[in-house]
Design brief:
alpha+beta; two-stranded parallel ribbon
Length: about 90
């Protein structure tokens, strides 16, 4: 399911009501959850939602390199870890 649900008013309300930092990672060429359901144009108006849209990807992963199976979920894990680390650093500084 996309962060914006079905890309309708209910999904927009869900995003607008997000109280904790949320990183949405979505491939623009996802063949299953089309990019429009991310409500990208509305995310900029939310307080706690950040969209990382990649031009290419997949529905469940972002293959990389000559042997994608060796990388497994590296991209997603690295992005989530960096996001969480940045939030923790901000909290310590703030």
């Amino acid at each position: 399911m996309s962060a914006g649900g079905r890309g309708d008013a209910e999904g927009l309300a869900r995003l607008s009501g997000t109280r904790v930092p949320l990183l949405v990672v979505h491939a623009m060429d996802d063949p299953i959850a089309i990019f429009e359901v991310t409500l990208a144009e509305h995310i900029a108006n939310t307080e706690n939602v950040l969209l990382l849209a990649t031009k290419h990807g997949g529905h469940i992963g972002w293959p990389s390199g000559w042997s994608p199976s060796n990388q497994r979920w590296g991209f997603m894990v690295d992005i989530a870890t960096e996001f969480a680390s940045a939030l923790a650093d901000e909290r310590l500084e703030g």
